[in-house]
Amino acid sequence: MPLNEDSRTFVEESSGQYTATFKDESDTAVALTSIDSISLTLYDKYSGEIINSRNAQDVLNTNNVTYHATSGLLTWAIQQADNIIVGLVDHLGIGHENDDVDWLEEHIALFDIVYNTDLRAIHEVKLLVKNIGIIEQSSSSSSSVSSSSSSSLSSVSSSSSSSQS
């Protein structure tokens, strides 16, 4: 199921889960034995600030991401530190005039998958993080990401859920 605005919106510093099934160009799930590497870069879309030290971070069955041996199911257990507010600017233009409207930051998660030795797929996930204003800002180490790219070597279906408490 593709992401929609409700399912990709997380309250700041909440945890959640993102899943995607990785398939090759023939619509066949790519087995773990064919995966060479999976890395994750998570950053704020407008400032380029890296979030939770996830700058080309190895996530092949580590760092809160699992990849199923045969089904191609990738599961990211999104941590509280993955959903922090990094800036004070309302990047989506929501909420400036009306305090009743949500303030949102757009974050990008890039999954870079290398498989069958020389094939590569980059899967982009757009996440919205709702600033509720009562949580103290977390400190995070920052650096910037210069650009993002996407390619379509595979078919990926996605779903996400967030726990908002």
Task: Give a quick rundown of the structure.
It contains no helices and 9 strands. It is mostly beta strands and 165 residues long.
- Percent strand: 35-45%
Mean pLDDT: 77
Question: How many DSSP E strands?
Answer: 9
Structural shape: elongated
How far apart lie the N and C ends? Answer: 24 Å
- Spatial ordering of strands, largest sheet: 1-8-7-3-4
Description:
This protein is mostly beta strands and 165 residues long. Helix content is 0%, strand content 40%. The chain has strands spanning 9-11, 16-23, 35-44, 57-58, 65-67, 73-78, 103-115, 119-131, 155-162. The strands form 2 sheets. A 5-stranded mixed beta sheet has the order 1-8-7-3-4, with no helix packed on it. A 4-stranded antiparallel beta sheet has the order 5-6-2-9, with no helix packed on it.
Task: Please describe the topology of this protein.
Elements: E1 9-11, E2 16-23, E3 35-44, E4 57-58, E5 65-67, E6 73-78, E7 103-115, E8 119-131, E9 155-162
Parallel strand pairs: 1-8
Antiparallel strand pairs: 2-6, 2-9, 3-4, 3-7, 5-6, 7-8
List the keywords:
single chain, 165 residues, mainly beta, five-stranded mixed sheet, four-stranded antiparallel sheet, 9 strands, elongated, disordered N terminus
